[in-house]
Amino acid sequence: MDSDLKGRTILLGVTGSIAAYKAADITGRLTEAGADIFPIMSAGAANFIQPLTLQTLSKNPVASDIWQEGVGWQPGHIELADRADLLLVAPATAHCIAQFAHGLAPDLLTSVHLATPAPVILAPAMNGKMLKHPATQANMACLRGRGYRFIEPDTGMLACGYEGPGKLASVEAIVARVRDFFRR
Ligand SMILES: Cc1cc2nc3c(=O)[nH]c(=O)nc-3n(C[C@H](O)[C@H](O)[C@H](O)COP(=O)(O)O)c2cc1C
Hints:
- It is a single chain.
- The chain is an alpha/beta fold.
- It has one domain (9-124, 147-152, 170-183): Rossmann fold (3-Layer(aba) Sandwich), CATH 3.40.50.1950.
- Helices cover 40% and strands 19% of the residues.
- It has helices spanning 22-32, 51-58, 76-83, 94-102, 108-115, 128-132, 134-145, 171-183, and strands at residues 9-14, 36-41, 86-92, 120-124, 149-150, 154-157, 163-167.
- The strands form two sheets. A five-stranded parallel sheet has the order 2-1-3-4-5, with helices on both faces. Strands 6-7 form a two-stranded antiparallel sheet.
- α1 packs parallel to α2 and α4 (94-102) crosses α7.
- Bound molecules: flavin mononucleotide (FMN).
- Residues 15-19, 42, 44-45, 93-96, 125-126, 130 line the site of flavin mononucleotide.
């Protein structure tokens, strides 16, 4: 078992990208390596992957609805936010990146984002034109300025039918980056 990841609490944000199914593999590999993964899905992500998949692979409950909080007195999202060592969002949509940059908190993932002191790593995935749009570029620059890390998307054939940048980085690259992060 990878000692760098053993016992680490990682919140895995999964947003509404066609690449959301890859979150299953990311969850499985990080869990196998010893990390404690708590998936948080946006409502959009649920169109692409079943919570049950991430629940089974992470062996933890999957959070998605801010109005269905935990059983204790403290809102579940605050409890999750407080104990995280890392907030990893993979895949991160243009919408999620914009919400993070602007400090919006309409759902569980974005609320946890504002509430957590944990560092944030984002793995964007989107159509190349969405990625190159000045709004997206400005949002990413804003987050980089705050110390957020990005796992650069690959260039290749995109699910939308175009070829170009915006493909989610490989699962191997994402897992390796998380390992590197904890080796600091
Ligand atoms: C089939 C399909 C695939 C999509 N893939 C992406 C994607 O890869 N990246 C992205 O930024 N948005 C994508 N979208 C659009 C997002 O789902 C949409 O912007 C949504 O509001 C994102 O919300 P969320 O970030 O809260 O999940 C896709 C939409 C559809 C219908």
